[in-house]
Amino acid sequence: MTNDNQGIQGTPTNPEAAADGVRLQKVMASAGVASRRVSEEMIAAGRVRVNGKVVTELGRRIHPDSDLIMVDNVAVQLDTSRRYVMLNKPVGVVSSMQDESGRPDLREFTDQFEERLFNVGRLDAMTSGLLILTNDGDLAHVLAHPSFGVLKTYIAKVEGRVSPQTIQLLQNGIELDDGPISADKARLLASPPGDGFSLVELTLHSGRNRIVRRMMEAVGHPVVDLVRRQFGPLHLGTLRVGDVRDLTKVELGQLLTVSRAETKI
To answer: What class of enzyme is it (predicted)?
Structure first.
């Protein structure tokens, strides 16, 4: 856990201890928050927090490698060497940097970056959708670890006509071989007449292997196609299959805010 007077490494931080640090407005400008002058205005207006506490002194110095900054309650990444990329993973690509069986892997998408990126969590080979690539190990651990329960939203095309009763069952909970499971949210998007296919949206915090496919199989509607549309605060949006892009500053702030909040739970 991290208290209000500690950085991410647990280093105690206060105005006296940070006397040999860097001025806050300079750090904010270097991180791309705003110009130094605008950063000063943000500080004076009480919009900036250091390790959870509002700072209004323009002379405040901090240690960028250990102190945590928030502007308007949104986290700021001070380490400019970190990179965060969103990939719309295609079907047939395994979530690995080097597949032992020679199948297509994520190197096709990471080789274009100078940084050594790795994936946050996994999608099975036959599932497409949102996958985060980064060189931030701390953030990757928080977002991928099942104990932190970051929400993921999937859209599944399934066999047969799904009933409202089945949607309710998915939310109430079902029993699988490795224990009970329930969807945090379940919604029927389309259920055409006859014995065709239905579209179901599922939101889960579980990180168990192939969980959506196993849940839908258990209620009698095997998955035909599966896409992850959302991971935490990030949405796939209009990103085309096989394309990558850097996260925007807003998206990165939202993601860092979620990850820091999870570590305090």
So the answer is: isomerase
Residue among 78, 93, 90 at smallest CA distance from 33:
78
pTM, whole model, 2 decimals?
0.84
133 SS3 class: strand
Q: Do residues 38 and 25 lie in contact, with contact meaning Cβ atoms separated by under 8 Å?
A: no
**Residue 10 banded pLDDT, cuts 50, 70, 90:** very low
Distance CA 50, CA 144 (A): 26
Gap between the Cα atoms of 226 and 15, Å rounded: 51
C-alpha 205/C-alpha 208 separation (Å) is 9
Q: Environment class of residue 68 by beta-carbon count within 10 Å: exposed (0-12), middle (13-18) or buried (19+)?
A: buried
Q: Domains along the chain?
A: 22-76 (3.10.290.10), 84-147+234-263 (3.30.70.580), 151-231 (3.30.70.1560)
Active site residues: 124
Which tokens in the block code for residue 35?
């110009």
Mean pLDDT across the chain, nearest whole number?
A: 89
Strands (E), 151-240: 152-159, 174-176, 179-181, 185-190, 197-204, 223-231, 234-235
